[in-house]
Design brief:
about 300 residues, mainly alpha, Rhopdopsin 7-helix transmembrane proteins, two-stranded antiparallel ribbon, GPCR_Rhodpsn_7TM
Length: about 300
């Protein structure tokens, strides 16, 4: 735990582990025995609470981690000014608290539900299952709020952050290539390849986030607003499998997103280093006490073109 990144990775690991422990065994068991529910009301509420909370923690952590990357590439001086483990710990603690508070309605509203006989509307005891009451879901917009706050807004933020990072890397690389005209062609090609690799990785984060989380929220929205469709049962059955698979793959996606920071760490550090070098040589790097740092030997050495 020597860097702020490791704290974010640890937070993701804990949330994913809790999510898998409380969610995956139950889902697998339901494929063999769905009715009646054997775990009871307390486990139903705890499972709904923990699973939803860990999901929100993962989403929030991805957004916070993306913000760290954005600052590292686009505003490295601000990041260095805020560097410190305590800041990362405070952010992660706040993410967990907000997530657990946000899922209180899911824990309170989840209960053992029953199907009813068509004739006398008496409940079928053998049909017990853990879920939220359809009547409550229609009256309280918990799914709609969850979709907006924990998918739409994070998705927009991730697109904006990674789009800005990609534009910054492309612009910085193009400036470097302009300075290096007439120098070694191999260095130019390597710089272009590094730029394309980083941009592809940034785009992969956005696409993977959408693919993993959209089916889950889509299934909830179709349940609310499209139950009268002629082929609703077929669509719901297909989405149930797709959303369930993507829901648990999202745990892997969270870790891959974090590990990706290590894979692309060298290009990102180089991009951040080049910007810091430029600020130092321009004399725009401000330190406490209005001290400006501009080592002449370093800047003169960096300004020399590479030998052919």
């Amino acid at each position: 735990m020597h860097t702020a990144t490791n704290y974010y990775l640890f937070s993701l690991a804990v949330s994913d582990l809790l999510y898998l422990l409380f969610g995956l065994p139950t889902e697998v068991f339901l494929y063999w025995h769905q009715y009646p529910d054997l775990f009871g009301m307390p486990f139903c509420k705890i499972r709904a609470f923990i699973s939803e909370a860990c999901t929100y923690v993962s989403v929030f952590t991805i957004v916070a981690f993306s913000m760290e990357r954005f600052l590292a590439i686009c505003h490295p001086l601000h990041l260095y000014a805020m560097v410190g483990f305590k800041r990362a710990i405070r952010i992660i603690t706040a993410l967990w608290i907000v997530s657990f508070i946000s899922v209180i309605p899911f824990g309170l509203l989840s209960d053992i539900q029953y199907l009813n006989y068509p004739l006398d509307h008496s409940r079928i005891e053998e049909s017990a299952f853990c879920s939220m009451s359809p009547k409550i879901v229609n009256e309280i917009p918990v799914f709609e709020v969850s979709f907006c706050i924990f998918f739409v807004i994070p998705m927009i933020l991730i697109i904006l952050l990674y789009g800005r990072m990609g534009a910054k890397i492309r612009s910085r690389t193009n400036q470097k290539l302009g300075v290096q005209q007439g120098t070694n062609n191999r260095e130019t090609r390597n710089s272009q390849m590094r730029k394309k690799t980083v941009i592809r990785m940034l785009a992969a984060v956005v696409i993977t986030f959408f693919v993993c989380w959209f089916p889950f929220h889509l299934q909830r929205l179709i349940f609310l607003y499209a139950k009268n469709m002629d082929n609703y049962l077929d669509i719901n059955e297909a989405l149930f499998s797709i959303a369930g698979f993507a829901y648990y793959v999202s745990c892997v996606q969270c870790d891959v997103t974090s590990l990706q920071g290590c894979v692309q760490g060298t290009p990102l550090r180089k991009s951040r280093g080049r910007l810091l070098q430029q600020r130092i040589c321009e004399g725009s790097l401000q330190f406490p006490g209005k001290l400006r740092l501009r080592p002449r030997s370093f800047c003169s050495r960096q300004s020399q073109p590479a030998s052919k």
